[in-house]
TrEMBL record:
<protein>
    <submittedName>
        <fullName>DNA-3-methyladenine glycosylase I</fullName>
    </submittedName>
</protein>
<dbReference type="InterPro" id="IPR011257">
    <property type="entry name" value="DNA_glycosylase"/>
</dbReference>
<dbReference type="InterPro" id="IPR005019">
    <property type="entry name" value="Adenine_glyco"/>
</dbReference>
<dbReference type="InterPro" id="IPR052891">
    <property type="entry name" value="DNA-3mA_glycosylase"/>
</dbReference>
<dbReference type="Pfam" id="PF03352">
    <property type="entry name" value="Adenine_glyco"/>
</dbReference>
């Protein structure tokens, strides 16, 4: 018998099902993955998450496995290489945002903090498990997180992007009430 999943999980895409089943809504505290997901959610702006998910391995290869130190030092030659890479979304603003985000992230680390400390402080270290109602595109919390990250110099961190990010890294568990992932966490 097939597992009951959230309606958005495309059953025809094994990558999407694996993402839904093992990552989405699962609390993440791994710095590199938090940085990766921040940038991938930004790259997703205006596109479907499935498009970005299908390109995730290409992004990892293109962006040095999301090594912020390397990305922060990218110059014009690397930017040109990225803009010519058909395996990622070739949008100049999104590529520039990844570099800016790496620089902002390194400043955050230099200040003695981390994405893990910063992000999870917004929810007291515990995920928000949403009820049965409709899933919002953004919330007051994602508004606040968006503004705070922007003040720190991060780009492509609008409130809607931040709400999707919060779902993706498990700060918010928005699995449908009948989804096996929600039931497994009860």
């Amino acid at each position: 018998m097939d597992k009951q999943r959230c309606s958005w999980a495309n059953p025809a895409n094994p990558l999407y099902l694996a993402y839904h089943d093992t990552e989405w809504g699962v609390p993440c505290h791994d710095e590199r993955r938090l940085f990766e997901m921040l940038n991938l959610e930004g790259a997703q702006a205006g596109l479907s998450w499935e498009t970005i998910l299908n390109k995730r391995e290409n992004y990892r290869a293109a962006f040095d496995q999301w090594d912020a130190h390397k990305i922060a030092a990218y110059g014009p030659d690397k930017v040109a290489e990225l803009l010519g890479n058909a395996g990622i979304v070739r949008n100049r603003l999104k590529v520039a945002a990844a570099i800016t985000n790496a620089q902002a992230y390194l400043r955050l680390l230099d200040s003695g903090s981390s994405l893990d400390k910063l992000l999870w402080s917004y929810v007291g270290g515990k995920p928000i498990v949403r009820g049965d109602g409709p899933r919002p595109a953004k919330t007051e919390l994602s508004d606040r997180l968006s503004k705070d990250l922007a003040k720190l110099g991060f780009k492509f961190v609008g409130s809607t992007i931040m709400y999707a990010y919060m779902q993706g890294i498990g700060m918010v568990d928005d699995h449908a009430p009948d989804c096996f992932c929600r039931k497994a966490r009860k």
